[in-house]
Specification:
Conserved hypothetical protein from pyrococcus furiosus pfu- 392566-001, ParB domain, six-stranded mixed beta sheet, 5 helices, alpha/beta
Length: 171
């Protein structure tokens, strides 16, 4: 995880922080397009879509921000590091920033697939937490069961699709 220490300086306003992150995100997005890479926020694995009855509510706990890798729905508001891409996000992003400064915020809602988390509610809070160099964030967690050991010669997506407990729930 990149920590933008120059953005956590107390003299830099939250508005400046937002625009600095937005500029970095837009630059990286342009660069990624030029070299043929994807800088978009990951979406919850397609093979799990529609199999939500198999999920299990784990409860609330602190999770590492580094393991929050994507979103439940396809969207283009944030880049792959949860940096804002659109100016229209500024008001909500600043509200999240000020909520943290004034006593905290509600837990984010995430879905766990393996050791990765996908945000359903709380994208702005995750963005602010990452910008401020936070290591963890409190989350309500829904877990999708997945076998943790994968055969060496099998592509992971195919293996998960064939062998996950969630795949068996659909049958």
């Amino acid at each position: 995880m990149k920590i933008y220490s120059y953005l956590t300086n107390a003299r830099i306003s939250p508005v400046d922080t937002f625009y600095a992150l937005q500029t970095l995100a837009r630059r990286e997005q342009i660069w990624a397009r030029l070299i043929g890479q994807n800088a978009s926020l990951a979406t919850f694995p397609e093979q799990m879509q529609g199999k939500r009855p198999c999920k299990k509510f784990i409860g609330m706990k602190d999770i590492p921000i580094e393991q929050i890798v994507g979103t439940m729905e396809s969207q283009s508001d944030f880049d792959h590091e949860f940096r804002p891409l659109k100016s229209s996000l500024r008001k909500k992003w600043l509200n999240a920033y000020h909520s943290l400064a004034n006593g905290g915020w509600a837990p984010v809602l995430v879905h766990q697939f393996g050791d990765r988390y996908y945000v359903e509610d709380g994208h702005h809070r995750v963005s602010v937490a990452r910008a401020l160099g936070r290591v963890s964030i409190q989350a309500k967690i829904w877990e999708y069961p997945v076998h943790s050991i994968q055969p060496k010669n099998c592509p992971s997506a195919q293996w998960i699709e064939k062998n996950s407990v969630a795949a068996q729930c659909q049958e």
